[in-house]
Amino acid sequence: MTKKYDALIIGAGHNGLVCAFYLARAGLKVRIVERRDVVGGAAVTEEFFPGFRNSVASYTVSLLQPKVIADMKLADHGYRVIERPISNFLPQEDGGYLKLGGGLERTQKEFARFSEHDARVLPEYYEMLEGVADVLRDLALKSPPNVGDGFKTFIDGARQGRGLMKLNISQQRDVLDLFTKSARTFLDSWFESEAVKAAFGFDAVVGNYASPDTPGSAYVLLHHVFGEVNGKKGAWGHSIGGMGAITQIMAKVCRDLGVEISLEAPVSRVLVDGDKTVGVRLESDEEIVADRVIANVGPKILYERMFNDADLKPEFRRRVKGFKAGSGTFRMNVALSELPRFTCLPEPGEHHQSGIIIAPTLDYMDEAFLDAKRYGWSKKPIVEMLIPSTVDDSLAPHGQHVASLFCQQFAPAHDWDADEGKAADCIIDTVEAHAPGFRASILGRQVLSPLGLERKFGLAGGDIMHGNMSLDQLWSARPVLGHGAYRGPLKGLYMCGAGAHPGGGVTGAPGHNCAQEVLADASLFGRLRRAHQ
Prior knowledge:
The protein is α/β, with parallel strands linked by helices. It has helices at residues 14-25, 66-71, 104-112, 116-140, 151-165, 169-180, 183-188, 194-201, 217-223, 243-256, 299-305, 314-321, 362-375, 416-434, 450-457, 509-522, 524-531; strands at residues 4-5, 7-10, 30-33, 45-49, 52-55, 81-83, 88-91, 97-100, 228-229, 232-233, 237-239, 260-262, 267-273, 276-282, 287-290, 293-295, 330-336, 355-358, 377-386, 401-410, 442-448, 493-495.
């Protein structure tokens, strides 16, 4: 007799695990199928060189929802995050440096070295960002109103719009600016120092194949201030044991609730009967029957590779084809014999425990993007380095270190089989220019171009967000208007990954929200409502 599941989830990334947890807790029989031999998706810890382990793709913590942490009781199972002493450290082209974070007064003193004006307006800037972020945080754990649901769309939209309507006119203007303006235009209206603008502008290009001059890039800047660490808003930190420690804990919690997790089980097709999904076929030809299929893979992978064309309406396929994905991200992990010694600050210190940003100005970031468009990658790429072994000695042998290099801008569509090594050398050269001796300290490295990220983690175009975080692909329009509330174009099909609201980052929010919609549809009222649509 064929075993049937209430829900079958494609992909054991963190959102798939979060979704499975809430469904299993409600009594549903859940199975997850994962193409790789380990759970976690892009949030995994692996040994990449003998004796050296690191977070291979996703590499830092802030955005994981406190509700998810509490509901899954992650702390009871060993979840632990060490907050950065300062947020970021930016070496400058003139041999100086800027430190961001460590408290308002300290950051103001640092900014005053560059601009008294910028130090003076910083509290107002933070207050503005926090006011907008609070409204959007409130929306993160709510399903967007789904266009096409009739009067319900109007009611849901009105409810979720109340937070925005409570903002005064100045705050509403800030929202408009953040959603429509470029990061440069937005930051120019606040600050005068190029170093200060770069310190904030870096967030606008993280995972975003765009220039800080691209309209809408200011929103990506905002997206990265949503989070918190240990109750402190806007903070970032290191997960002890790497990002994989988080997803391993999530998997244990799910298994304790009876969730079945099948590894090395790649899906070849979503099975469809009429207008309803009925399960999946694995590449092994095993067919799994389920009342609901929930995809934790991105929209491009799901709809362009896992369905027969005849199963989806032509207009929907055209919309998905137009869905923009490709973040220009290049990831490296390096094993180091010693800490890098930066020319501007050579001795060990708190800057080694922060985000080390090589992108001293917005012009530098813009040129990096233009280079990527012209040549495939930037000759002076944007690099963020984290050295988690400074706070977690489980990752490297005593006295040695691991470093994550998260780099932009690299064209998603490029011959990376031919040029991956050359681009990696260019990244090393960029760090070497600020920290002489860095190249000589490298014992081993792991290189993942956008194509490498796609092959290893199933990220279309290497897109860590599962799709661009642009205004046309947010909220009710993520991934396609009319399917923004986690439901696909077929009955029984749902989306719980970063290609749904509120988007990318290790948040758990899409998994949480999708599970609530699945459970709502599974209720008697939900079944009746769906039957009459």
